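Fig. S4 source data, part A: sequence.
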Amino acid sequence: MTESPQRQLFDPRGQALYEPPAARGRPTRVAAAQRIRAPAKTFLGRVLDALRDGPKTDDELCKYTGLRDNSVRPRRIDLVRRGLVEDSGAVRPTHCGREAIVWRLRHPPEEPGCRSS
C-alpha cells in the first residue's frame, strides 16, 4: 500500500504542519486561509478529545463536540487514515434509528517484554 500524495495537514496532536497557501498574497485569500486554519485544527482536536473520552458513533461525536456532521466526519476520516482511530467492531443506533459504526482510539501494539505482571 502506498501513502497518499496529499500532504498531511496536522500532526497527531492537531497542530498544523504547514501554513495554508494564500495565492499570490491577495488579501481576501490570506484572510480566508487564516480563518480556516484555527477552526480546522480546533475541530480535529475536539473530535480526538471526544474519542479519548470513549468510543463513539459519528452521531455521538456531533452531540459530544457540538459540531455538525459535515465538520465531524471529515476529521474522523482523517484520524482513521492516520491510524489513530479504528472501527471498534460494534454498532449503535443513530438518533434516527439506523445502525452506525462505533469508532475508538487505536492503541499501539505492546512492545515485546513490556507487559506488566
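Fig. S4 source data, part B ends here. The CA atoms of residues 49 and 65 lie 9 Å apart.
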